[in-house]
Amino acid sequence: MAVVCKNEHGWVVDHKQYLDQTYCRRNTQPYEGVLTSFQFQADLFNIKCPFMMDSQFEVTQESHSHMGATGELESSVKRKRKRKRKAELNYGEVKAAEYHDQIKDQVLTAVNTLLELGKEVGYFPTEKNLQDLDNNVRARAAVKSLGETDICTEESCYHGDFPSIKDQQGIILKHNDDVTMSSIVNRPVRYPRDDPAVVSVDNDLYLLPPRCSFLLSDFSRVNLLQTSTEFPRFDMIVMDPPWQNKSVKRLKKYYSMSNEDLLDIPIPRLGTDNSLVVVWVTNRWQHIQFVKDTLFPRWSVQFLAEWHWVKVTKACEMVYTFDSPHRKPYEVLIIGSCRKPKTETNSEGIDEETVSQERATSQIPVSKVIVSIPCCIHSVKPPLQEVMKEYLPPNPHCLELFARNLTPDWTSWGNQVLKHQHKIYFDAVT
């Protein structure tokens, strides 16, 4: 179970436990499947204290060591004064500050109640152990040791003359299969068994979760999701687009795409009537407004809700100061529902399943908060299956766009769809 506890404000989610349960072998009988269980590297979730530079952490530790009996700093330690900002805020920064002020009280109330509930059930510690703080050195070392594991998958989508998906049948993988990257690009791939599997792709080992399917392709072939008979119409479509921002352009490390490209995703033809559309957005005001005012109308999607994911440490602190002007400890989920034009709707032909799904989506709360200890790998999001379950039909068909990992019972699409399935991220459990 991914959900540790919940209340009227939202959920506390254990992402690490969810992954461990996903890759745990359940079948004790001999069969063509993995013979061991796997766990996601524990240090990748070993977030003990807020994110900060080493120099800032040293000052913080020194401050703790000079705490007097009253809990206040002794005179020998002085707080550093914040440098005054010289430049005026630009329009985007002003709007971002206004947005933060609008959601602040509501999100903080939710976080505080969820953290207290997490303490009550024993998930979070009731007291902070200062001796246990290490500026997340093990988590940072774990990420650094991984290196780049997705280059071959990404480049395979852009280079080479691959056949159209219409000319290729779907492929079913099984445990210990040995395939080439070119043989799985631009074609539906499915793994149907109930236990995880290990497969070799161009001599690299990847883990497959139970009952997963995927399409490895670049954005120019996203329409293949609707032209292949291998894929159903989806009850929920989740995406974490590679949003453009200044830091991405400066680092030149992560693939990004323009907002205009996102408009071309054929959401209405991928989803069912009333299917949910969930878009992850950073806390940049421009992206939030683009989804609400431009993207959703273009896709014929009705805005329903705006939720927040708040990242916390094992010590029950947010990973950044909530009011930090530079980085926020939260990200935004914008949720909508596909709506066909009235001219395409035949009231006499609406079945009970459609009515049931429409009723479920209409009950989605306008505001909720998900609290979790984040994975320290860039752009890894918490699982949504259990959180969204009550708003979906039984056994829903779900799709993740721009996926960097596979999900049980879901279809995943992207040019990095196998990135976090590489065996280097996992430890075998005997």
Automatic annotation (TrEMBL):
Belongs to the MT-A70-like family. SUPFAM superfamilies: S-adenosyl-L-methionine-dependent methyltransferases. This is Methyltransferase-like protein 4. Residues 62-84 are annotated as: Disordered. Keywords: Methyltransferase, Transferase. Pfam families: MT-A70. The keyword Amino-acid biosynthesis does not apply. It comes from Mizuhopecten yessoensis (Japanese scallop). InterPro entries: DNA_methylase_N6_adenine_CS, MT-A70-like, SAM-dependent_MTases_sf. One of its GO terms (biological process) is methylation. The keyword Zinc does not apply. PANTHER family: N(6)-ADENINE-SPECIFIC METHYLTRANSFERASE METTL4, N6-ADENOSINE-METHYLTRANSFERASE.
